[in-house]
Structures are given as C-alpha cells and as structure tokens.
Amino acid sequence: MNSMIIGKYVPGNSLIHRLDPRTKLLLMFIYVFIVFLANNEWTYGVLTSFTCVLLFLSRIPPSFMIKGLKPVLWVIVFTFLLHVLLTKEGDVVFQWLGIEVYDKAIQQGAFISLRFLLLIVVTTLVTLTTTPIEVTDGMESLLSPLKKWGIPVHELALMMSISLRFIPTLMEETEKIMKAQMARGVDFSSGPLSERMKAMTALLVPLFISAFKRAEELAVAMEVRGYRGGNGRTKWRELTWRRIDTAFMLLLGLLAVLLWLLRS
Amino acid sequence: MEVALRVEHISFQYANEKTYALQNVSFQVYKGEWVTIVGHNGSGKSTLAKLLIGLLPPKSGTIHVCGIPLNEETVWDVREKLGIVFQNPDNQFVGTTVQDDVAFGLENRGVQKNEMVKRINEALKKVGMENFVNDEPHRLSGGQKQRVAIASAIALEPNIIILDEATSMLDPSGKKEVLQVIQSLRRERDMTVISITHDLNEVAKADRVIVMNKGKIALEGTPKHIFAHGSKLEEMGLDLPFSLQLSQRLKENHIPITIDHLTIEGLVSELWTLYSAMSNIATK
C-alpha cells in the first residue's frame, strides 16, 4: 500500500533530480500553459522533442514512465477516437460501415491526444524526480509572497509535511486494525457492497479515534520543543537556486517564444 | 547543591472530578541528579509531568525550574530548560527523516544553519544514531525512535531531561538501549534526569526515588531504601523487580543470599559464586 503514494519517487542523481524543486514546479506550471500554444506539426514537433530531452536527462527507466502512463492510456485512446468520429472537416479519407472519417479529424485527434500525453509525461516526470518533502519546500518558497495577504503558507507547508510523515504510520495502523477486526469476524472483502461499506465503519472509527489522539500528542510534543508558529523560525532545508536552474528557466522561455513564432 | 527543580505544595484537580489528582506535593531535584518518580496508573505521576512542562496550571503551589517560577508568561522560557521524551515513539516524531526531526526544535528556536548542522551531528552521535540521518521513521525500531527523540531533546541543550514513560512502549532491548543512552549522557554532561515510570525495574539506576500514590508522595529515598518497603510497594499496585522477588524467595528457603538484589546481574553473580563458596566449605 505504501508504494501507492510515496513510492512514486525514483531515487537518482540526474540533472533533473538535482534541479531546485521550485524550478521543476515552475516548469510544470508553465508547461501546462505553453502546451496550448502548439497547433501545427512544427510546434508539436518542438514540444515533443523538448519533452523527450527532459525524459532523457532524467535517466528514469522508460518502464517506470510506461507504468505511470498505463491508467491514462485509455483516456488518451478514447479522446483520439472521439475526435476521429465526431470532427467533420476536410476530405473524407475512408468510409466504413457508414462512418465517414475525415483527414482533419485524424490530425485533430492526434494533436489533442499528443497534447494530453505530453502533459502527463511532464507532470509524471516531476513527481518521479522530486521527493514529496522537496515539493513541499518548493511550494512553501514559491507561495511565500502570499503571506502578505494573510495566507498561512508556512502552516500549510508544515501540515503537508506532517501528513507525508504520518502516511506510513497510519497505513500500518490501518492494517493492524483490519487484522484485529477480521479476527473478530468482520468481513471486509466479500458480500454485497452495502455490507462491505458497513464493515468499513469497524475500520474507520478506530482509525479516526487513534488519529485524533496522535494529533493531540504530536501537538504537545511540538509545543514542548518550542513550536510557536512560523515567526522567527529558521529553516533546516534550504533551497539553493543554482545557475542550472536559471538556465532551465531561460530554456523554457525560449521554448515559449519558439512555439509562439511557429504556431499558425 | 544547586537546585534544578523545586516543586512546592502543588495541588491539582481535574474538572468534573471530586478527588484531587495531586495533593500538596513538594520535592526538589538537584543539578546532576537522576530522580525517578514511580507510581501505578492514577497515582498522579502523569498529571505531575503535565504540570512540570506547563501544559496544566497547578491549582495551588509553585514550580521553579532552574530558578524561574513557572507561570503563563514564563512557560516558553521554562520549556527551553526542559527536554521531554514522551511515551509513544511515533507521536513525537515530527520530521520526515531523522535529521529533520532533530532540526525541528532548532528551527523553532531560530538557530542558524551552520550551528544546526553541528548540533544535529553531535546529538545524533551521542545517542548512536549518526548512521540513520536520512532514515524515515517507519524504518526505525521503537528504541531507535526514542533515541532520536532524546537526540531532539538534547540538541536544544536543556538543563533537565524528563522521561515521561519513555520506555513503556518498548521491548526489553529497546528499553535497555534508551536507558544506556541516558546513563552515558549523565556521565558526559552531568545532565539532570527526571524519569516518570510505573516500572520498578527502572528504579535501580536512579539516585533517588519518589513513590507516588493517590496524588501524594508516599515514599522518598534511595532505591535500596525504597525496596526495603517491599510489601508496601506491592500494596500500592507496583510490581517488585524479579531479582528482588527471587532474592527474597531464596532467603525464605534458607539459601544464604547476602542482600536483596535490585539487578539481575547482581543476583546472578552472587548465585554462581555462592555455589563455589559453598562447595569450598564442604570440601574443607
């Protein structure tokens, strides 16, 4: 169960792994927008090659990438088919059982699915090369200007990192409670859905009670170690923006300009 | 001798409860001393711990920590003097990795980065966890987690370290690990230790023992002095250490044991030398 959420990160020491998490988050964010600039063969070509270079630099084994893409593959295929069947522009390429397929439709379908694929590849790439705690640190740093408007950025980041820290603990606890309840005759895995839902209460109630208890004890432990909110706190994990990060951002800017010039 | 902690006439009563959880409790702990506060469930020892760290205000009486009177204004100053290790190893692990957890307290105090590096390394070395800096808590055993908790406490350089049932959720080897770390810390740093426990086995190593019962101090003295009241301790719901019980039974059965042993090691060494001593007499 652990691998589901945290195991996504693939340890490594590639160029992409070593980038500042802020760079990667910005990269992801900006990429999502510039993907929509592409609208012809040239622009899609540029985008695809850029993404392939990123993939290559990350040294992530392709098998990991494919595994990550599997669940969305159907969505991509479905999008493609939908476009092929419903768009009626250009010339008819072939006819089959009374369905007419147009050339523009195929092109459109391919573009849209490619766009989708590229988006998913890049976001997966970022999660595969960045530890959750780095993502948290990056978010905190990027969102820190929002503090001026009273948004508790530090608290949100701390909440996130504590949640990450407690995921394995609560997973373990869930397993323990499940076993304890199964030993008492609760059946989690068979019977009609309504029965199984009912059985879940035997799991969720003790889990919630214990989580609240943990939260209280944790709060005391934090207070005793001098936690009084974000003011006057120093940071152990410091993010360092290096030349390579600036270079990456410039590259991204270049990509955006290129796409703007090449689009029709 | 310098007084590290002075508790004077404190009483406490929980809301909705008729009886006092603590009633006119007074004691002192000197600098460098190891004092164990022992009592069964409901004796008031956990309440006492909560009062000492300022989580609950006493109904009456005063607490001085290193000369600072504990009240609402000084609670944060007082907490700087104290390092506390709680019972549940998981629920006091704040950081995502060992080093993050030790860093947490330092971050709160606004310690600069280079000083942090130094203190984290030192503290982890002291508890023998220097090879686990990047480990996540779910990969550590209970004893290891408690040692990290001790490291987190000592990194803040407290004057007094309080162990609030810190070993009660650990297996025997985990208990041993934690107590050994505490002992070596005391040797090296002259740390004042207050351990709160229900386990009389942990009492043997303390300089002084305070036995709590029904919210009052029932007995106070050296471990030997305390164990001389064997039956009285049992009446208060405490289990005597196995070595002590065995020594007593052996004596009852006319085996010539010299003293009531507080540690297994002591009893074992007397027993195996006893046999040769007796056979020596027999051959003579």
Automatic annotation (TrEMBL), chain A:
UniProt topology in membrane: Multi-pass membrane protein
UniProt record similarity statement: Belongs to the energy-coupling factor EcfT family.
PANTHER family associated with the record: PROTEIN ABCI12, CHLOROPLASTIC
Domain of life of the organism encoding this protein: Bacteria
Pfam assignment, any one: CbiQ
Subcellular location: Cell membrane
A GO MF term: transmembrane transporter activity
Organism, scientific name: Anoxybacillus tengchongensis
Protein name, UniProt field: Energy-coupling factor transporter transmembrane protein EcfT
Keyword Transcription in annotation: no
UniProtKB/TrEMBL annotation, chain B:
Name of the molecule in the record: Energy-coupling factor transport system ATP-binding protein
UniProt-listed CDD domains: ABC_cobalt_CbiO_domain1
Family: Belongs to the ABC transporter superfamily.
Superkingdom: Bacteria
Alphabetical list of PANTHER family matching this protein: ENERGY-COUPLING FACTOR TRANSPORTER ATP-BINDING PROTEIN ECFA1, HEAVY METAL TRANSPORTER
Major subcellular location class: membrane
Keyword Zinc (UniProt): no
One Pfam family from the record: ABC_tran
E.C. number: 3.6.3.-
